[in-house]
Amino acid sequence: MKRKDLDYLIIAGMLLSGLYVATTGLVMDLFGFPQFFLHRYAGYACAALTVLHLALNWGRITAYLRRRFRRPLRRESLPQPGHVPQQRMGRRGFLVSALAAAGGFALGWLVPGRRPVTLPDEAGDLGALYHRWSTPGYSLALGALLDWGGRPAGYKTYPNAKRISLPDPHGYYGLSLEGAIEARRSIRDYTSEPLSLVELSRLLHAAQGITDQRRGFRAAPSAGALYPIETYAVAHNVAGLEPGVYHYAVAGHALEQLRTGNLRAAITVAGIGQEMLGQAGVCFVLSAIFQRTRWKYRERTYRYVLLEAGHIGQNLYLAATSMGLGACAVGAFLDDQLNDLLGLDGVEEAALYIIAVGKV
Ligand SMILES: Cc1cc2nc3c(=O)[nH]c(=O)nc-3n(C[C@H](O)[C@H](O)[C@H](O)COP(=O)(O)O)c2cc1C
Question: In this structure, are 177 and 287 located in the same domain?
């Protein structure tokens, strides 16, 4: 192979690998991958080809630089009067541009769009349909160019609410993780003994507490560290805490009092009559502010938000078990009643999950 051919081959490789690095970088950004091996290898390939290209053309490059920066401009090289500059795009240039345009057009046709989703009758619920439609693909990536709204504040606060500081949640060592996993059961009978404020503090910390102060990362994982889930505590029987609805202010590890009063009946009704919700010391309600995840993950949002509520729910279960408390998850509830109880609109932010916790 002639040296010139090799040079062209390397330039083509550089262009292709550069394009690949850019595309995989875009994919990483879109889907929030911190690492992506295809991106890494393409980057190495691009860097290696660049070094090779520089090595092969070192003489020409240094000669050019010397010419460009050392030699003074000679009088005869200046454009003479009446000189018409040569057309830049010759026939070959035009042909290449036309071919590139045709290639781009063909690519647009060939890139698979979203396949029409058809479901067999027996799997025909809305969730299954959503699941199939929310698969990532080229069209989803291109959809990022559309406007999915802005990024809302990462923390929700109620500036006018009474703020109640929570005791330090650290320093308690209950059951081991293995022990808590083995012992965890859904407990639906609770005694009338109140939970302590420090127990409530530990539970909230296990659910959503900040465990990496520098980056603001929390006890439970979150797609893209966007943290769409808010935690509310409907407290019935916590020593030193007026019964009512409280919002967990994650940033300051504090409670914001939203309303007071005996809400045992109200939450039992919202929970379709499940009595444990009125008997528990506290019912944690996890809600989602969907836009926190949607501006970045678009159609994947609903999946991520539910998965994250699951993580937090399990943290609550295990923390309660480790402290010798009883917990039970509740997914069956009347959405409108529960959202009303917390003052949520059910659209921008909606209740997803209840975890009842009480003394056993
Ligand atoms: C998503 C979800 C929703 C649930 N909803 C309810 C509910 O509405 N009422 C209830 O009594 N238990 C509910 N549970 C608890 C399950 O009934 C319980 O996990 C199951 O019976 C297994 O028992 P275990 O948790 O003791 O292992 C729910 C659990 C999950 C994961």
Answer: yes
**129 within domain boundaries:** no
Last residue of a domain, one of 69, 96, 113: 69
So what's the pLDDT on residue 344? Answer: 98
Q: What percent of the chain has pLDDT over 90?
A: 56
* 125 inside domain: no
Q: At residue 223, does pLDDT exceed 60?
A: yes
Report the separation in Å between the CA atom of 355 and the middle of ligand 1, taken as the mean of its atom positions. Answer: 10
Please tell me the distance between residue 277's alpha carbon and the centre of ligand 1 in angstroms.
Answer: 13
Residues of the domain holding 52: 1-69
Residue to probe by mutation, ligand 1, list 328, 338, 355, most atoms within 8 Å of CB: 328
Burial class (CB in 10 A: 0-12, 13-18, 19+), 81: exposed
Q: How many domains, the chain?
A: 2
| 8-state DSSP, 347 | S
Residue owning the nearest CA to atom 30 of ligand 1: 329
274 lines ligand 1 (CB under 6 A): yes
C-alpha distance from residue 187 to each of 280, 329, 355 (Å) = 10, 9, 11
Q: Are residues 211 and 326 in the same domain?
A: yes
Return the minimum-mean-pLDDT range out of 34-43, 230-239, 279-288: 34-43
